[in-house]
Structure formats: structure tokens, C-alpha cells
Request: fold
Amino acid sequence: MGSNKRVKIGKSKIVGAGRGVFAEHLIKKGEIIEYCPVLILPKKDYPIVKKTLLKNYYFMWGKVTCGICLGFGSLYNHSYEPNATYKKDIKKQLIRFFSIKDIKKGKEITVNYNYGNSQSKKKLWIKDIN
Reply:
């Protein structure tokens, strides 16, 4: 499957997750994992996208629209005990993923989907996710 030298796509062991993103080598705490450009959808398309398969892959972009994260960005799975997090750069239209712990080679990289708080245990809007 796909790879960008730092990470690769593989089969996740997280129930119901399908694919996931895995470390190709040791990633130290605080390292950038990936910079992902984001395609910002027009406001009028947001209600339509919420009714498609993309509802599980988009990122909210402001309060009225969403963006599709390119690279491997939309494939990082959720965990309430993540080893990575992300920051949106609205102006540059990109998302930066970085480690918050050391991540061993072969380990799945996960983020907490509760944006802005990697420790949040708030229930997710996505069904059938841990």
C-alpha cells in the first residue's frame, strides 16, 4: 500500500477502522509526521458531503464548511489514547500532524478526533467508533 517514507498505510487492528497509518521508523515525541494540504469545500457543498461516505473523512473548517485532507491525513484513526495530534492552519489551508509520544516502527499512528484536546474523552459524532 501507499507510503511517504515516514508513514505507510496498512490494515488497522482497531475494530471497524479498516485502514490506518503506521510509522515506517521510530518517530520521536514532537516530530512532524506529515503536512497535509486541505481542499476546502464551498459552503453549499457541506450539507451534501455530510450525506456521503466522505462524512467519515472530512475535517470541519470553520463553523460552516469542511475540508478534505490530502496525503494520509484523512486516514489517521481515532483513539482516546492517541500518540499524535494535529493542528489546522486555516490561512495556509493545511493540517500538520505531529507526535505527542515516541511512536515505534510498525505502530499505528492515532489522533483524538476531539480537535484541540488530545486528552478529551468526549463522545464522537461518528457512529461505531471507539
Notes: Strands lie at 7-11, 19-23, 32-40, 58-61, 65-69, 77-78, 84-89, 94-99, 108-111. The mean pLDDT is 86. The first strand starts at residue 7 and ends at 11.
